Amino acid sequence: MPELETATNELLAQGFHSYVDALAAIRSFKSEVVKGCRTVMEEGLLRLPKSLNTSGTKNGIVEEIDPSDIGDFGEDYAWIGVSLPLVPEKLWFSVGIYLDQTDESTHRVQAYVSFFTARKDTVRTLFGALGELRGTAFVLDDEDTGVCAVEPILSNALASYQEALRKAMSSWLDKDNGKALVILGKVINAR
Predict the structure, then answer these.
(1) How far apart are CA 126 and CA 103, in angstroms?
(2) What DSSP designation does 134 have?
(3) Measured between alpha carbons, how far is 138 from 156 in angstroms, rounded to an integer?
(4) Where do the domains of the chain lie?
């Protein structure tokens, strides 16, 4: 039992000395990543085709953090990014960083540029319509509510996360002359 008390006392001593610093570091980190994601989203917004009939502007961009409160953390992942409704009740645009540590040996950091819809059948139709682009440039999100362009962020290149976000964005905007966005526009407009 004394070993447990010693371990508890050490944990408390470390916590009392570092808790405020840790919270400040987390807040600064989230702020920096959100700022970078916002910049990439704003760059992408300028290039979205009119065929999407979007109503979203940079003023509608909101931060999206999961978990949003440290008390809610209980999983092995985190999401830090921004989101924007493009077509009310139909289509959302999202740019962010996904951090996944499902076990001690696996730690992934990935850049995501995604379009989410209110209906799973719309997402499945979009994903199917992407044809040969499926699985190479695009994946379905875990809940089948969005189609995502994903780029890994290597552990030796974490500081260049914005470049990975831009590369994921280019999958939507540049690959085959924006074929993916043309398909997205057709699917959304048909619904």
Answers:
(1) 32
(2) B
(3) 24
(4) 2-190
